[in-house]
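Two quick folds needed for the group meeting slides. Do the first one here.
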Amino acid sequence: MNKDDIQTVFERCALGHIGESFAYKLWIQGFGDEVEEEILEDFLLSFDYRDESSIFVHEFLYHFATFKIVRKSFLEGIGNG
């Protein structure tokens, strides 16, 4: 994903205001090369960002990495169940 794709996902999740701040910062770190839109969208819909003024990109990336691990474990569990 490029910067605009990342911003679009934030907008689809009604978080365009956060995407405006984060899209470039995430893209420049190579975030879009590692992530599918579906996973980012699942993450954004799962977390509450009401107090978005206090979150930093590195915190966002930490929570996202944790989410990806849990999501993968969950999906693998469904496949084996």
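Then this one, please, same format:
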Amino acid sequence: MRSINKFSFITLAMILLMAGTTFGLEASYQTKEESPPAATSEDIQNKWNPSGLVENLMHDLQIVIQKERIATLSEVDKERKATLVYLTQERLAATEDLRSELTRLIETLVSERQATLVEIEAIGDRLVDRSLDSGKQLIDHFLLRLIQLVVVTGVLAAAIIFTVIRIRAKR
């Protein structure tokens, strides 16, 4: 299918070039009022000889194709440059968005860290206060029990001493 399209295109291009070449020759002779320039036999053979005509047409076709290729490549280059500019702008915008998001996240993390440190300090203060209160209560409890032991021991010692004195006094 593609080779048919190429063949059709080449055939059409050759026909148009032949018509253009022939029209150009006729037009150049018709527009000049003076006599046409003398053509050499070699020019006549090259222009009207089928192989010379085909060579001329092929040369003209190559020039046309070359110009079209250059135009197409320059258009592709322009589009490529425009695409690169657009992509560069998008990349810069995305990079700036990421930087601002990173800055916002860092600020959030710093504030959360500070809040966490304050909370940890408060928890530590409460733990120390509870430990001190517990220590005070333990010491108070220990001293109370010690005083009770001393009092009970003193009462028992007094009772024993009183009993011993009575027993000796009865004897």
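Slide caption for protein two: Residues 44-170 form one domain.
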